[in-house]
């Protein structure tokens, strides 16, 4: 009897140390599993950001052809430069100025080097400054999508010619241009200054950015005041009864309703019933406001609820609702703004 | 004109404030004992003007379009509209609108030109009427507010009661949103069930909603069985939860039990970044990085993997949900009373044993609540699946295959111009209704579990 008790308390016995090893192992296991889980999450994040950056960064530069070119007087009327033949001008810039001695039968393929928008870039330039007509100036013109990709190294030169988007000859001509120093790769301002386009090399985000900004503005103007008003009411004034309970449960549920359901609400109510026009930022913004409202209310309530200064000034606060609004908001301004 | 109306509104508010402020100040200077401070008199007038007038402008802007449309439609000759469907009438109205906007194509009929003229006149007069009504109401409210300034007028209480009512209506907006959701969904769903039998929708195993809108169009015969769509949602949500739950829970346990404060301070915010990435970026990631990788991986082993496999969409959704689950689990573990933990450690349990045998069981309700909320998110998640999941509904539970989800179907059904008179559009509302009900049930259950559990320890 005493023996067995002693054995059980013998910390150095082999069984006991085996047991201890097992416990330590399971501790180690759990710890490594946790580290493994976090590493997986970090790895996913790194992969996400890495793939975004590596596939996205070339969009921030734009390949340009930078050449000295004469704005040919014969192609346009100085009185009315808008109607000039800028298509021909763009063609001449490539064929005459740059690829001297190139195969002239191939003229049409050569002009493919420039973006379809290049003629309009030239037109806008001349229209803005008609004095340029007849002068020789430096022009910067975006090159077409395929050449843009080639210059950015996104077009594999080892692909068999028949399935490549550019032929060997086209690549050769473009390489001559690059060697001649006529190709530059500046920052792609067009990405922010242009609206969407059928031509990838000149497509930009301007329309999308403006649309988002309008929708956000409407959403903010609606949901921010309403959300804060509701939060202050629920946190400070609402009596504890069925109705305020209902409102609270309701808000928590709304916060978890899928966004697509809010979309259906906006479609049915604003567009279907009220007959508002489609695709206007106002309707989108209102729908977004309804969607963000519960989140704003919850965040604002969380921000104003533990306000200690209020309890310190309770006697004053209970006397005057107006001071309670000010107190509730003034101590916690930065939080609801987030 | 709208701008003019708002200008009138803000000038009137300013005038009201200054007018009443001065009147109150004059009374006070005249030796009267005022009940309220001058500022409250001013604020009272400002709100008295602002609230009704602002409401009038908003009301006008919301409804003038429909009212004008209605009047124009009524003025059209009855024989032209006779026997025409909703779509054709809408086309006629669109033509009249574009004529009114100065874009005339061909030679429209005289009655359309008349309609366009009427539309232009009505629009102009509506704008003028709005300005006039705004000015009249503002002036009236100014008069009312000004006439109330008196020594014993309780301006502060008046102001406070207006603000109080405003705040109550803000809080009630949330209820109206829910009512709006339920009303709009059930109204359109009801109309859908008038065209498609209820049981065909609930128990049907075939989903081919791309039915012809015009008669001569060639399209699917139309089948509205929701089961394959929900099965697809379930497959993707399951994949997502299988990834998010273990990773989320294990990282929460590590962070809570083993990590020191420095590690926590770095790891937690980095995990939160995963929650802050816009879902459209995740969708992009799934379709351009994960799906091709899985496909070529499968090809190496001779397993055919669809290019928009449920694994890619579900896996990426799982990554998105990791921080969601881990922060819920972390909170739940943290809410377990310290005494339980200390007691376990005091009798010699290792940290791992404490977590596994004491903290985790105690925190299970909170964790389950968090997981349920994550499930409801996975079911309702839209953008990732729109980009990365398939469009064809299949009765399959194979995650390597391409499946579609409820949200994807809703989005595809509603893309483009949609009329509210065919089952194709309305079926989106029926799907939305079921989605809403399912997520609502999960949310209510989750919130209830979390709440109850908090009460035990609070």
Highlighted features:
heterodimer; A: 338 residues; mainly alpha; 16 helices; disordered C terminus; B: 458 residues
Helix-strand blueprint:
The complex is a heterodimer of chains A (338) and B (458).
Chain A: H1 2-8, H2 14-56, E1 64-70, H3 86-98, H4 107-111, H5 118-128, E2 136-142, H6 145-151, H7 168-179, E3 183-184, H8 190-193, H9 206-237, H10 242-255, H11 259-273, H12 281-304, H13 308-312, H14 314-319, H15 321-330, H16 334-337
Antiparallel strand pairs in A: 1-2, 1-3
Chain B: H1 2-29, H2 38-75, H3 78-81, H4 86-100, H5 110-147, H6 155-195, H7 198-203, E1 207-208, E2 223-224, H8 227-258, H9 261-276, H10 279-300, H11 310-335, H12 338-346, H13 351-380, H14 383-388, H15 406-414, H16 423-457
Antiparallel strand pairs in B: 1-2
Helix pairs in contact in B: 1-2, 1-5, 2-5, 2-6, 4-5, 6-16, 8-11, 8-13, 9-11, 10-11, 11-13, 12-13, 13-16, 15-16
Q: Give the amount of beta strand of chain A, in percent.
A: under 5%
Number of helices of chain B: 16
The end-to-end span of chain A amounts to 69 Å
Number of strand segments of chain A: 3
Helix content of chain A: 55-70%
Elements of chain A, N to C (H/E)? HHEHHHEHHEHHHHHHHHH
Assign the structural class of chain A, choosing from mainly alpha, mainly beta, alpha/beta, alpha+beta, or little secondary structure. Answer: mainly alpha
Strand order of the largest sheet of chain A: 2-1-3
Q: Can you characterise this structure?
A:
The complex is a heterodimer of chains A (338) and B (458). Chain A is mainly α and 338 residues long. Chain A has helices at 2-8, 14-56, 86-98, 107-111, 118-128, 145-151, 168-179, 190-193, 206-237, 242-255, 259-273, 281-304, 308-312, 314-319, 321-330, 334-337, and strands at residues 64-70, 136-142, 183-184. A three-stranded antiparallel beta sheet of chain A has the order 2-1-3. In chain A, α3 crosses α5 (118-128) and α11 packs across α12. The radius of gyration of chain A is 34 Å and the shape is flat. The termini of chain A are far apart. Chain B has 458 residues and is mainly alpha-helical. In chain B, α1 packs antiparallel against α2 and α8 (227-258) packs antiparallel against α13 (351-380). Chains A and B meet through α2, α9, α10, α11 and α12 of A and α2, α6, α8, α9 and α10 of B.
């Amino acid at each position: 009897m005493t023996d067995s008790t002693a054995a059980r308390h013998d910390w150095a016995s082999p069984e006991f140390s085996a047991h201890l090893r097992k416990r330590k192992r399971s501790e180690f296991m759990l710890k490594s599993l946790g580290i493994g889980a976090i590493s997986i999450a970090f790895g996913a994040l790194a992969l996400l950001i890495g793939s975004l950056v590596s596939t996205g960064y070339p969009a921030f530069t734009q390949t340009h052809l930078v050449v000295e070119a004469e704005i040919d007087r014969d192609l346009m009327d100085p009185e009315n430069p808008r109607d000039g033949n800028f298509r021909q001008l763009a063609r001449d810039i490539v064929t005459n100025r740059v690829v001297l001695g190139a195969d002239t039968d191939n003229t049409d393929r050569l002009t493919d080097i420039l973006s379809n928008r290049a003629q309009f870039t030239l037109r806008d330039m001349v229209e803005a400054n008609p004095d340029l007509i007849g002068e020789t100036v430096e022009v910067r013109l975006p090159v077409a999508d395929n050449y843009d990709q080639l210059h950015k190294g996104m077009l594999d030169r080892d692909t068999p010619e028949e399935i490549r988007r550019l032929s060997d000859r086209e690549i050769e001509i473009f390489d001559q241009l690059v060697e001649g120093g006529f190709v530059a790769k500046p920052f792609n301002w067009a990405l922010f200054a242009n609206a969407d386009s059928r031509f990838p090399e000149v497509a930009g985000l301007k329309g999308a950015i403006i649309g988002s900004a309008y929708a956000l503005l409407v959403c903010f103007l609606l949901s921010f005041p309403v959300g804060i008003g509701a939060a202050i009411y629920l946190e400070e004034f609402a009596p504890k009864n069925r109705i305020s309970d209902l409102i609270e449960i309701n808000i928590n549920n709304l916060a978890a309703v899928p966004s697509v359901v809010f979309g259906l609400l906006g479609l049915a109510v604003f567009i279907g019933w009220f007959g508002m026009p489609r695709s206007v930022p106002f309707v989108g913004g209102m729908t977004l406001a309804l969607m963000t409202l519960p989140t704003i209310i919850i965040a604002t309530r969380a921000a104003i609820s533990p306000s200690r200064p209020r309890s310190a000034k309770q006697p004053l606060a209970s006397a005057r609702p107006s001071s309670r609004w000010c107190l509730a908001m003034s101590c916690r301004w930065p939080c609801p703004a987030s | 004109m709208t701008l003019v109306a708002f200008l009138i509104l803000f000038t009137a508010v300013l005038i009201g404030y200054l007018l009443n402020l001065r009147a109150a100040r004059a009374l006070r200077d005249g030796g009267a004992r005022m009940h309220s401070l001058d500022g409250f008199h001013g604020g009272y007038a400002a709100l008295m003007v602002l609230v009704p007038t602002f409401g009038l402008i908003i009301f006008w802007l919301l409804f003038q379009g429909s009212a004008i449309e209605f009047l124009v439609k009524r003025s059209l000759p009855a024989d032209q509209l006779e026997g025409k469907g909703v779509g054709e009438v809408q086309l006629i109205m669109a033509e009249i609108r574009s004529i009114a906007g100065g874009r005339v194509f061909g030679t429209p009929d005289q009655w359309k030109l008349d309609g366009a003229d009427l539309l232009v006149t009505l629009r102009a007069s509506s704008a003028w009427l709005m300005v006039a009504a705004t000015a009249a109401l503002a002036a009236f409210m100014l008069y009312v507010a000004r006439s109330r300034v008196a020594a014993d007028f309780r301006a502060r209480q008046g102001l406070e009661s207006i603000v109080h009512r405003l705040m109550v209506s803000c809080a009630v907006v949330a209820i109206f949103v829910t009512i709006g959701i339920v009303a709009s969904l059930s109204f359109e769903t009801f109309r859908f069930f008038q065209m498609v039998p209820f049981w065909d929708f609930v128990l049907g195993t075939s989903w081919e909603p791309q039915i012809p809108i015009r008669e001569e169009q060639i399209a699917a015969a139309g089948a509205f069985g929701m089961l394959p769509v929900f099965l697809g949602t379930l497959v993707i949500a399951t994949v997502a939860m299988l990834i998010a739950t273990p990773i989320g829970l294990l990282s929460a346990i590590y962070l809570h039990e083993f990590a020191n404060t420095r590690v926590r301070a770095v790891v937690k915010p980095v995990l939160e970044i995963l929650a802050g990435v816009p879902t459209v970026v995740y969708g992009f990631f799934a379709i351009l990085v994960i799906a091709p990788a899985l496909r070529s991986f499968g090809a190496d082993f001779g397993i055919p993997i669809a290019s928009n496999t449920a694994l890619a969409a579900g896996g990426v959704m799982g990554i998105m949900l990791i921080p969601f689950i881990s922060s819920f689990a972390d909170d739940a573990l943290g809410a377990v009373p310290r005494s339980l933990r200390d007691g376990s450690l005091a009798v010699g349990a290792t940290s791992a044993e404490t977590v596994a045998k004491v903290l985790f069981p105690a925190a299970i309700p909170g964790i389950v609540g968090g997981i349920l909320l994550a499930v409801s998110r996975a079911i309702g998640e839209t953008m990732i699946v729109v980009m990365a999941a398939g469009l064809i509904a299949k009765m399959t539970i194979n995650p390597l295959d391409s499946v579609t989800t409820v949200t994807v179907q809703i989005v595809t059904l509603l893309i483009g111009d949609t009329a509210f008179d065919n089952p194709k559009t309305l079926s989106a509302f029926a799907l939305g209704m079921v989605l809403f009900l399912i997520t609502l049930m999960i949310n209510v259950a989750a919130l209830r579990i979390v709440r109850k559990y908090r009460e035990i320890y609070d």
